[in-house]
Specification:
Blueprint lengths: L3 H6 L3 H13 L3 E5 L4 E8 L3 E4 L1 H4 L4 E5 L5 E9 L7 E5 L22 E6 L7 E11 L4 E4 L11 E3 L5 E6 L14 E5 H13 L15 E2 L7 E5 L4 E2 L5 E9 L4 E7 L5 E7 L2 E8 L8 E6 L4 E9 L6 E9 L16 E7 L4 E2 L5 E9 L4 E7 L5 E6 L5 E5 L9 E6 L4 E9 L6 E7 L1
Parallel strand pairs: 13-16
Antiparallel strand pairs: 1-2, 1-4, 2-3, 3-6, 4-5, 5-6, 7-8, 7-10, 8-9, 9-12, 10-11, 11-12, 14-22, 15-16, 16-21, 17-20, 17-22, 18-19, 18-21, 23-31, 24-25, 25-30, 26-29, 26-31, 27-28, 27-30
Protein backbone atom coordinates (compact mmCIF):
# COMPACT_ATOMS: atom_id res chain seq x y z
CA UNK A 1 0.00 0.00 0.00
CA UNK A 2 1.30 3.45 -0.93
CA UNK A 3 1.42 5.87 1.98
CA UNK A 4 -0.21 9.31 1.72
CA UNK A 5 3.18 11.06 1.74
CA UNK A 6 4.46 8.79 -1.04
CA UNK A 7 1.30 9.37 -3.09
CA UNK A 8 1.58 13.14 -2.72
CA UNK A 9 5.21 12.97 -3.78
CA UNK A 10 4.10 11.37 -7.03
CA UNK A 11 1.72 14.25 -7.80
CA UNK A 12 3.10 17.17 -9.86
CA UNK A 13 4.15 20.12 -7.71
CA UNK A 14 1.42 22.47 -8.96
CA UNK A 15 -1.32 19.92 -8.32
CA UNK A 16 0.09 19.03 -4.91
CA UNK A 17 0.10 22.74 -4.04
CA UNK A 18 -3.54 23.24 -4.99
CA UNK A 19 -4.59 20.20 -2.96
CA UNK A 20 -2.57 21.35 0.04
CA UNK A 21 -3.95 24.90 -0.08
CA UNK A 22 -7.54 23.68 -0.27
CA UNK A 23 -7.22 21.08 2.48
CA UNK A 24 -5.44 23.54 4.77
CA UNK A 25 -7.71 26.57 4.30
CA UNK A 26 -11.20 25.32 3.38
CA UNK A 27 -12.16 24.41 7.00
CA UNK A 28 -11.82 28.12 7.89
CA UNK A 29 -14.00 29.40 5.01
CA UNK A 30 -17.69 29.91 5.80
CA UNK A 31 -20.94 30.57 3.96
CA UNK A 32 -22.92 33.64 5.03
CA UNK A 33 -26.67 33.84 4.45
CA UNK A 34 -29.06 36.77 4.77
CA UNK A 35 -32.77 37.07 4.04
CA UNK A 36 -32.11 37.99 0.43
CA UNK A 37 -28.76 36.49 -0.50
CA UNK A 38 -25.37 35.63 0.85
CA UNK A 39 -21.72 35.08 0.22
CA UNK A 40 -18.57 33.80 1.89
CA UNK A 41 -16.19 34.74 4.67
CA UNK A 42 -12.92 33.80 6.38
CA UNK A 43 -12.52 32.99 10.05
CA UNK A 44 -9.63 35.20 11.21
CA UNK A 45 -9.81 34.56 14.96
CA UNK A 46 -10.48 31.28 16.83
CA UNK A 47 -13.24 32.99 18.80
CA UNK A 48 -15.32 33.32 15.63
CA UNK A 49 -14.42 36.71 14.12
CA UNK A 50 -15.19 36.52 10.41
CA UNK A 51 -13.98 38.77 7.59
CA UNK A 52 -16.31 39.31 4.63
CA UNK A 53 -17.69 41.98 2.26
CA UNK A 54 -19.98 44.82 3.30
CA UNK A 55 -22.21 44.06 0.32
CA UNK A 56 -22.61 40.44 1.49
CA UNK A 57 -24.11 41.44 4.85
CA UNK A 58 -25.82 44.56 3.49
CA UNK A 59 -27.68 46.45 6.19
CA UNK A 60 -28.44 43.28 8.16
CA UNK A 61 -27.36 43.42 11.78
CA UNK A 62 -27.58 39.63 12.20
CA UNK A 63 -26.64 36.96 9.63
CA UNK A 64 -26.51 33.16 9.55
CA UNK A 65 -23.06 31.60 9.23
CA UNK A 66 -22.57 28.00 8.10
CA UNK A 67 -19.19 26.45 8.88
CA UNK A 68 -17.41 23.97 6.64
CA UNK A 69 -18.23 21.18 9.13
CA UNK A 70 -21.95 21.83 8.69
CA UNK A 71 -22.63 23.70 11.94
CA UNK A 72 -24.62 26.95 11.75
CA UNK A 73 -24.42 29.98 14.04
CA UNK A 74 -25.99 33.41 14.25
CA UNK A 75 -23.47 36.20 13.78
CA UNK A 76 -23.58 39.90 14.63
CA UNK A 77 -22.21 42.42 12.13
CA UNK A 78 -19.68 44.36 14.22
CA UNK A 79 -18.01 46.65 11.69
CA UNK A 80 -17.90 48.06 8.17
CA UNK A 81 -14.93 49.33 6.19
CA UNK A 82 -14.39 53.08 5.92
CA UNK A 83 -13.85 55.01 2.69
CA UNK A 84 -16.31 52.80 0.85
CA UNK A 85 -14.09 49.74 1.27
CA UNK A 86 -16.24 46.68 0.71
CA UNK A 87 -15.32 45.06 4.04
CA UNK A 88 -17.35 43.89 7.03
CA UNK A 89 -16.73 41.83 10.15
CA UNK A 90 -19.09 39.32 11.78
CA UNK A 91 -18.73 37.91 15.29
CA UNK A 92 -20.28 34.49 15.90
CA UNK A 93 -22.63 34.25 18.86
CA UNK A 94 -22.02 31.72 21.61
CA UNK A 95 -18.21 31.97 21.41
CA UNK A 96 -17.70 28.49 19.88
CA UNK A 97 -13.91 28.83 20.31
CA UNK A 98 -11.15 26.69 18.87
CA UNK A 99 -12.14 27.41 15.29
CA UNK A 100 -9.69 27.03 12.38
CA UNK A 101 -8.45 30.34 10.98
CA UNK A 102 -7.08 31.75 7.74
CA UNK A 103 -3.58 33.26 8.04
CA UNK A 104 -3.10 36.70 6.50
CA UNK A 105 -0.14 37.37 4.20
CA UNK A 106 2.15 40.36 4.86
CA UNK A 107 1.07 43.63 3.29
CA UNK A 108 2.51 44.41 -0.15
CA UNK A 109 3.71 40.83 -0.65
CA UNK A 110 1.63 40.14 -3.75
CA UNK A 111 3.23 40.04 -7.20
CA UNK A 112 1.68 39.95 -10.66
CA UNK A 113 1.96 36.46 -12.10
CA UNK A 114 1.90 34.56 -8.82
CA UNK A 115 -0.66 31.80 -8.28
CA UNK A 116 -4.00 32.79 -6.79
CA UNK A 117 -6.67 30.54 -5.27
CA UNK A 118 -10.24 31.38 -4.30
CA UNK A 119 -12.52 29.44 -1.96
CA UNK A 120 -16.17 30.31 -1.45
CA UNK A 121 -19.81 29.46 -2.07
CA UNK A 122 -20.61 30.51 -5.67
CA UNK A 123 -24.32 30.08 -6.40
CA UNK A 124 -24.69 28.49 -2.95
CA UNK A 125 -22.15 25.69 -3.60
CA UNK A 126 -20.13 25.86 -0.39
CA UNK A 127 -16.44 24.98 -0.45
CA UNK A 128 -15.87 25.59 -4.17
CA UNK A 129 -12.21 26.05 -5.19
CA UNK A 130 -10.97 27.99 -8.22
CA UNK A 131 -7.43 28.62 -9.42
CA UNK A 132 -5.73 31.39 -11.39
CA UNK A 133 -3.01 34.01 -11.16
CA UNK A 134 -2.70 37.60 -10.01
CA UNK A 135 -3.37 39.42 -13.29
CA UNK A 136 -2.81 43.01 -12.21
CA UNK A 137 -2.43 45.20 -9.14
CA UNK A 138 -4.68 48.25 -9.38
CA UNK A 139 -2.80 50.84 -7.33
CA UNK A 140 -5.36 53.57 -8.05
CA UNK A 141 -8.19 51.73 -6.31
CA UNK A 142 -6.00 49.46 -4.19
CA UNK A 143 -7.32 46.21 -5.64
CA UNK A 144 -5.83 42.90 -6.75
CA UNK A 145 -7.08 41.67 -10.12
CA UNK A 146 -7.22 37.91 -10.73
CA UNK A 147 -8.45 35.51 -13.39
CA UNK A 148 -9.47 32.93 -10.76
CA UNK A 149 -13.22 32.58 -11.26
CA UNK A 150 -15.15 34.84 -8.87
CA UNK A 151 -18.92 34.30 -9.03
CA UNK A 152 -21.92 35.36 -6.94
CA UNK A 153 -21.39 33.70 -3.57
CA UNK A 154 -17.58 33.94 -3.75
CA UNK A 155 -17.88 37.51 -2.50
CA UNK A 156 -16.28 37.93 0.91
CA UNK A 157 -14.22 34.75 0.66
CA UNK A 158 -10.43 34.61 0.61
CA UNK A 159 -8.04 35.01 -2.29
CA UNK A 160 -4.97 32.96 -1.31
CA UNK A 161 -1.32 32.51 -2.21
CA UNK A 162 0.40 29.14 -2.63
CA UNK A 163 1.24 29.09 1.11
CA UNK A 164 -2.48 29.21 1.95
CA UNK A 165 -2.30 32.78 3.23
CA UNK A 166 -5.03 35.32 2.55
CA UNK A 167 -3.78 37.93 0.09
CA UNK A 168 -7.16 39.55 -0.48
CA UNK A 169 -10.92 39.49 0.13
CA UNK A 170 -12.83 38.68 -3.06
CA UNK A 171 -15.39 41.27 -4.11
CA UNK A 172 -17.76 41.41 -7.08
CA UNK A 173 -18.80 45.04 -6.66
CA UNK A 174 -16.39 46.31 -9.33
CA UNK A 175 -17.25 43.60 -11.87
CA UNK A 176 -20.96 42.94 -12.05
CA UNK A 177 -22.44 45.02 -9.36
CA UNK A 178 -25.13 42.64 -8.33
CA UNK A 179 -23.53 39.42 -8.86
CA UNK A 180 -23.24 38.25 -12.49
CA UNK A 181 -21.04 35.37 -13.59
CA UNK A 182 -17.27 35.41 -13.86
CA UNK A 183 -15.73 36.92 -16.99
CA UNK A 184 -12.17 36.14 -15.91
CA UNK A 185 -11.65 39.54 -14.27
CA UNK A 186 -12.16 39.33 -10.54
CA UNK A 187 -11.02 41.73 -7.85
CA UNK A 188 -9.91 41.38 -4.23
CA UNK A 189 -9.21 43.90 -1.48
CA UNK A 190 -5.54 43.50 -0.44
CA UNK A 191 -4.14 42.81 3.00
CA UNK A 192 -2.96 46.34 3.83
CA UNK A 193 -6.61 47.47 3.84
CA UNK A 194 -7.70 44.25 5.53
CA UNK A 195 -5.22 44.60 8.40
CA UNK A 196 -6.16 48.24 9.00
CA UNK A 197 -9.84 47.29 9.07
CA UNK A 198 -9.35 44.35 11.45
CA UNK A 199 -7.33 46.52 13.81
CA UNK A 200 -10.21 49.01 13.92
CA UNK A 201 -12.70 46.18 14.56
CA UNK A 202 -10.64 44.78 17.44
CA UNK A 203 -10.15 48.25 18.95
CA UNK A 204 -13.85 49.04 18.63
CA UNK A 205 -13.30 52.01 16.32
CA UNK A 206 -14.69 50.51 13.07
CA UNK A 207 -17.81 52.05 11.59
CA UNK A 208 -21.02 50.23 12.55
CA UNK A 209 -23.08 51.82 9.80
CA UNK A 210 -22.82 51.09 6.08
CA UNK A 211 -24.27 54.45 5.06
CA UNK A 212 -24.96 57.66 6.95
CA UNK A 213 -28.64 58.40 6.30
CA UNK A 214 -28.92 61.56 8.40
CA UNK A 215 -29.05 65.19 7.28
CA UNK A 216 -30.81 66.58 4.21
CA UNK A 217 -34.21 64.94 3.69
CA UNK A 218 -34.99 62.96 0.49
CA UNK A 219 -36.50 64.83 -2.45
CA UNK A 220 -39.39 63.02 -4.23
CA UNK A 221 -38.60 61.86 -7.76
CA UNK A 222 -40.98 60.15 -10.19
CA UNK A 223 -40.29 57.11 -12.33
CA UNK A 224 -40.45 58.18 -15.99
CA UNK A 225 -40.60 61.76 -14.78
CA UNK A 226 -38.45 64.65 -16.01
CA UNK A 227 -34.69 64.51 -15.52
CA UNK A 228 -33.67 65.98 -12.16
CA UNK A 229 -30.88 68.55 -12.15
CA UNK A 230 -28.79 68.61 -8.98
CA UNK A 231 -25.50 69.74 -7.51
CA UNK A 232 -23.13 68.13 -5.01
CA UNK A 233 -21.40 70.66 -2.76
CA UNK A 234 -21.02 71.75 0.87
CA UNK A 235 -24.81 71.99 1.16
CA UNK A 236 -25.18 68.24 0.46
CA UNK A 237 -25.10 65.39 2.97
CA UNK A 238 -21.73 63.76 3.67
CA UNK A 239 -20.88 60.04 3.88
CA UNK A 240 -18.25 58.77 6.35
CA UNK A 241 -15.64 58.80 3.54
CA UNK A 242 -16.15 62.55 3.07
CA UNK A 243 -18.02 62.31 -0.24
CA UNK A 244 -21.14 64.42 -0.86
CA UNK A 245 -24.56 62.93 -1.60
CA UNK A 246 -28.11 64.13 -2.20
CA UNK A 247 -30.99 61.77 -1.27
CA UNK A 248 -34.09 61.12 -3.39
CA UNK A 249 -37.20 59.01 -2.76
CA UNK A 250 -39.42 57.20 -5.27
CA UNK A 251 -42.32 54.75 -5.12
CA UNK A 252 -41.94 51.38 -6.84
CA UNK A 253 -43.88 48.15 -7.35
CA UNK A 254 -42.76 44.59 -6.65
CA UNK A 255 -41.44 43.05 -9.88
CA UNK A 256 -41.01 46.41 -11.58
CA UNK A 257 -37.73 46.74 -13.48
CA UNK A 258 -36.19 50.21 -13.34
CA UNK A 259 -32.98 51.83 -14.54
CA UNK A 260 -31.50 54.70 -12.52
CA UNK A 261 -29.00 56.89 -14.39
CA UNK A 262 -26.72 59.53 -12.90
CA UNK A 263 -24.71 61.50 -15.44
CA UNK A 264 -22.26 64.35 -15.00
CA UNK A 265 -19.38 66.13 -16.72
CA UNK A 266 -18.12 67.54 -13.43
CA UNK A 267 -18.05 64.64 -10.93
CA UNK A 268 -17.34 60.91 -11.01
CA UNK A 269 -20.93 59.73 -10.50
CA UNK A 270 -21.74 57.15 -7.83
CA UNK A 271 -25.21 55.72 -7.11
CA UNK A 272 -26.56 54.03 -3.97
CA UNK A 273 -30.02 52.42 -3.90
CA UNK A 274 -31.60 51.55 -0.54
CA UNK A 275 -34.96 50.35 0.71
CA UNK A 276 -35.93 52.07 4.00
CA UNK A 277 -38.58 49.42 4.68
CA UNK A 278 -36.12 46.57 4.05
CA UNK A 279 -32.70 46.82 5.72
CA UNK A 280 -31.42 43.85 3.69
CA UNK A 281 -31.57 45.66 0.31
CA UNK A 282 -28.63 47.76 -0.89
CA UNK A 283 -27.09 48.25 -4.36
CA UNK A 284 -24.17 50.52 -5.34
CA UNK A 285 -22.66 51.40 -8.70
CA UNK A 286 -19.78 53.50 -9.93
CA UNK A 287 -19.19 53.32 -13.70
CA UNK A 288 -21.89 51.10 -15.28
CA UNK A 289 -23.07 54.07 -17.34
CA UNK A 290 -20.99 55.52 -20.16
CA UNK A 291 -17.64 56.94 -19.07
CA UNK A 292 -17.72 57.99 -15.42
CA UNK A 293 -21.52 57.87 -15.25
CA UNK A 294 -23.38 55.52 -12.90
CA UNK A 295 -26.29 53.21 -13.67
CA UNK A 296 -28.33 50.71 -11.66
CA UNK A 297 -30.81 48.36 -13.36
CA UNK A 298 -32.83 46.29 -10.91
CA UNK A 299 -36.07 44.39 -10.48
CA UNK A 300 -37.67 45.87 -7.38
CA UNK A 301 -38.32 43.31 -4.61
CA UNK A 302 -41.35 44.93 -2.97
CA UNK A 303 -44.01 47.63 -3.34
CA UNK A 304 -43.17 50.80 -1.44
CA UNK A 305 -40.60 53.56 -1.03
CA UNK A 306 -36.97 53.43 -2.20
CA UNK A 307 -34.07 55.79 -1.53
CA UNK A 308 -31.53 56.87 -4.17
CA UNK A 309 -28.33 58.63 -3.16
CA UNK A 310 -26.74 60.72 -5.93
CA UNK A 311 -23.14 60.55 -4.75
CA UNK A 312 -19.61 61.41 -5.95
CA UNK A 313 -16.82 58.83 -5.91
CA UNK A 314 -14.18 61.01 -4.25
CA UNK A 315 -14.00 62.96 -1.00
CA UNK A 316 -15.15 66.57 -1.39
CA UNK A 317 -15.88 66.19 -5.13
CA UNK A 318 -18.45 68.79 -6.17
CA UNK A 319 -20.35 69.66 -9.34
CA UNK A 320 -23.60 69.39 -11.27
CA UNK A 321 -25.32 66.16 -12.29
CA UNK A 322 -28.50 64.80 -13.87
CA UNK A 323 -30.62 61.99 -12.37
CA UNK A 324 -33.37 60.00 -14.08
CA UNK A 325 -35.37 56.85 -13.29
CA UNK A 326 -36.95 54.90 -16.16
CA UNK A 327 -39.43 52.01 -16.05
CA UNK A 328 -38.27 49.11 -18.25
CA UNK A 329 -41.22 46.90 -17.34
CA UNK A 330 -43.44 46.76 -20.41
CA UNK A 331 -45.79 44.18 -18.90
CA UNK A 332 -46.00 43.51 -15.18
CA UNK A 333 -45.67 40.09 -13.59
CA UNK A 334 -49.05 38.54 -12.84
CA UNK A 335 -49.84 36.86 -9.50
CA UNK A 336 -50.01 33.09 -9.19
CA UNK A 337 -53.52 31.89 -10.07
CA UNK A 338 -53.39 28.10 -10.20
CA UNK A 339 -51.07 25.29 -11.27
CA UNK A 340 -52.72 25.37 -14.71
CA UNK A 341 -52.85 29.16 -15.03
CA UNK A 342 -50.44 31.99 -15.68
CA UNK A 343 -47.80 32.35 -12.96
CA UNK A 344 -45.68 35.11 -14.49
CA UNK A 345 -45.69 37.21 -17.65
CA UNK A 346 -42.83 39.67 -18.12
CA UNK A 347 -41.68 41.60 -21.15
CA UNK A 348 -38.65 43.84 -21.38
CA UNK A 349 -35.50 44.70 -23.25
CA UNK A 350 -32.13 42.96 -22.89
CA UNK A 351 -28.91 44.84 -23.63
CA UNK A 352 -26.37 47.41 -22.39
CA UNK A 353 -26.92 48.24 -18.74
CA UNK A 354 -27.82 44.64 -17.86
CA UNK A 355 -25.47 42.24 -16.10
CA UNK A 356 -23.39 39.77 -18.13
CA UNK A 357 -22.38 36.13 -17.78
CA UNK A 358 -18.85 34.78 -18.24
CA UNK A 359 -19.20 34.69 -22.05
CA UNK A 360 -20.21 38.37 -22.12
CA UNK A 361 -23.89 37.66 -22.85
CA UNK A 362 -26.49 39.89 -21.19
CA UNK A 363 -29.04 38.56 -18.69
CA UNK A 364 -31.88 39.64 -16.42
CA UNK A 365 -33.34 37.77 -13.43
CA UNK A 366 -37.00 37.12 -12.60
CA UNK A 367 -38.40 35.08 -9.71
CA UNK A 368 -41.53 33.12 -8.89
CA UNK A 369 -42.61 30.82 -6.06
CA UNK A 370 -43.28 27.17 -6.76
CA UNK A 371 -44.31 23.96 -5.00
CA UNK A 372 -42.62 20.59 -4.87
CA UNK A 373 -43.75 18.40 -7.81
CA UNK A 374 -45.48 21.34 -9.48
CA UNK A 375 -45.09 21.10 -13.27
CA UNK A 376 -44.41 24.42 -14.99
CA UNK A 377 -43.74 25.52 -18.54
CA UNK A 378 -41.36 28.46 -19.01
CA UNK A 379 -41.15 30.14 -22.40
CA UNK A 380 -38.79 32.91 -23.54
CA UNK A 381 -39.60 34.55 -26.87
CA UNK A 382 -37.81 37.19 -28.93
CA UNK A 383 -37.74 38.31 -32.54
CA UNK A 384 -34.55 40.30 -31.94
CA UNK A 385 -32.02 37.80 -30.55
CA UNK A 386 -31.30 34.11 -30.01
CA UNK A 387 -32.64 33.45 -26.51
CA UNK A 388 -31.21 31.28 -23.75
CA UNK A 389 -33.28 30.22 -20.75
CA UNK A 390 -31.84 29.15 -17.35
CA UNK A 391 -33.81 28.07 -14.25
CA UNK A 392 -32.21 28.04 -10.77
CA UNK A 393 -33.61 27.00 -7.40
CA UNK A 394 -33.36 29.23 -4.31
CA UNK A 395 -29.86 27.84 -3.59
CA UNK A 396 -28.79 28.89 -7.13
CA UNK A 397 -28.53 25.25 -8.24
CA UNK A 398 -29.33 24.58 -11.89
CA UNK A 399 -32.79 23.09 -12.43
CA UNK A 400 -32.86 23.31 -16.24
CA UNK A 401 -31.74 25.25 -19.31
CA UNK A 402 -32.74 25.51 -22.96
CA UNK A 403 -31.55 27.28 -26.09
CA UNK A 404 -34.08 26.37 -28.79
CA UNK A 405 -37.76 25.51 -28.37
CA UNK A 406 -37.43 24.18 -31.92
CA UNK A 407 -34.74 24.55 -34.61
CA UNK A 408 -36.79 27.05 -36.63
CA UNK A 409 -37.12 29.78 -33.99
CA UNK A 410 -34.98 31.89 -31.67
CA UNK A 411 -37.25 31.05 -28.71
CA UNK A 412 -36.45 28.87 -25.69
CA UNK A 413 -38.74 26.66 -23.62
CA UNK A 414 -38.49 24.52 -20.46
CA UNK A 415 -41.07 22.15 -19.04
CA UNK A 416 -39.96 20.94 -15.61
CA UNK A 417 -41.29 19.39 -12.42
CA UNK A 418 -40.12 21.58 -9.55
CA UNK A 419 -38.04 19.64 -7.00
CA UNK A 420 -39.12 21.50 -3.85
CA UNK A 421 -41.17 24.33 -2.36
CA UNK A 422 -39.56 27.75 -2.56
CA UNK A 423 -38.46 30.61 -4.77
CA UNK A 424 -37.09 29.95 -8.26
CA UNK A 425 -35.00 32.31 -10.40
CA UNK A 426 -35.20 32.56 -14.18
CA UNK A 427 -32.26 33.98 -16.11
CA UNK A 428 -33.41 35.63 -19.31
CA UNK A 429 -30.23 35.33 -21.34
CA UNK A 430 -28.91 35.70 -24.89
CA UNK A 431 -27.08 32.84 -26.59
CA UNK A 432 -23.97 35.01 -27.12
CA UNK A 433 -22.63 38.49 -26.40
CA UNK A 434 -24.26 39.97 -29.54
CA UNK A 435 -27.80 39.20 -28.39
CA UNK A 436 -29.97 42.16 -27.38
CA UNK A 437 -33.51 43.37 -27.90
CA UNK A 438 -37.12 42.89 -26.79
CA UNK A 439 -38.30 39.67 -25.10
CA UNK A 440 -41.38 38.10 -23.57
CA UNK A 441 -41.14 35.65 -20.65
CA UNK A 442 -44.09 33.53 -19.51
CA UNK A 443 -44.42 30.91 -16.77
CA UNK A 444 -47.55 28.77 -16.53
Amino acid sequence: MVSLSTAQAQVPVDEATTIRVYEHVSPAVVAINTRTGGGSGSIVDPSGLILTNAHVVGSNRVVTVRLADGRSFQGDVVGYGDNRQDLAAVQLRGNPGGLPTVAIAPANSVRVGQSAFAIGSPFGLQGTFTVGIVSRIDTERNLIQTDAAINPGNSGGPLLNSRGQLIGVNTSIFTTGSGGGSVGIGFAIPTDAVQTFLTAVREGTASTSAVNRSGRQPTPIAINGPTVEGRLDQNSNVLPDGSYYNPYRFEGRAGQTVTIDMTSREVDSYLILLAPERDDFSIQDDDSGDGLNARITVQLPYTGSYLVFANAYARGESGRYQLQIRDLTLSQAQPHRSSAGLILRQSGRLGPGDRTLRDGSYFQEFTFRGRANQRVRIRLESNDFNTYLILLDQSRNLVGENNNANPNTTNSELTVTLPRDGEYTILVNAFDRTGRGQFLLTVE
